[in-house]
Automatic annotation (TrEMBL):
Highest taxon listed in the record's lineage: Bacteria
Pfam families, per database record: GINT1_N
Protein name, UniProt field: Glucosamine inositolphosphorylceramide transferase 1 N-terminal domain-containing protein
Residue span(s) of domain Glucosamine inositolphosphorylceramide transferase 1 N-terminal: 42-233
Taxon lineage: Bacteria, Pseudomonadati, Pseudomonadota, Gammaproteobacteria, Enterobacterales
Amino acid sequence: MNCYTTDLWQIGIVQAPIQHIVASGSLDGFRIKWITPDKSLTFLADPFGLWKKGVLYLFAESYDYRTRRGDIIAYKLNADLDVIEQRTVLQEPWHLSYPFVFEADNEIWMLPEGYKSGTLTLYRAIEFPWRWEKVPDFSFPCAAIDATPFYAQGKWWMFYTPPLPKAARTDTLMLAHAPHFMGPWENVLQTAAHRNKSGARMGGTPFDHDGQIFLPTQDCSRTYGGALQMLTLDPQRLLTPEFAASVRLEVPASAAPFIAGMHTLSGVGDVTFIDAKRHLKGSPQRLWVDLQRRIQKWIS
């Protein structure tokens, strides 16, 4: 992103299971309800969800160009998928995104991306969905980007992208495993499990289908988060992984003007969350915000 092009994202709720979307091979024809930010120069991306007591909750990155930082926001939805309550639930001095939420050991956990902190931090819900606390006993080999846990074959697996080198952030997929989601975590391979700019960085929730594990990954070959490339993996070969490209999904034309990219496909029961991007060219407000930041940096 630069001061002349402002990437803006919004979140879509697709009224279909993730398996149906992948089987269709396209988002065209599916009903989508969109959630947009409340103010200018902000965006919503990286949606993940969880059903609790018959209520659907949505978690996402809320980014503000004024602070150049993302926080984690939570939404409570009603039966019509309308937002009935929303709050910011996680804020740190560093950027947060990709709030992967999951249930394990009768509790609810969140594993957001925050690699600029220098570590991967696990959070526990102490008052779901509004209050969370850090879990000090959790540790991971690196400050993983878009870490995505998955339980299979009697153990936990973590698909993630390393923070360094910088080029790896869009073309490298690593895989780690552990007997428990708290660890100890160990990389399956010392090198990348998969490397391809057209599909390696995680972009949503893995799922089992037809005897294969399906992984939503980002196609960054033309632009960051340009589309979703599904990878498949034999669950019997997790220790010697070989990935194959499957369906490629693009944002539907019905999302216009948000048709510049899509980088999340997140299944939660009978609905699926996506995000969609647009490019805003030459925004005077963005230019003014960046100018103010540079002046403040100069005088300080």
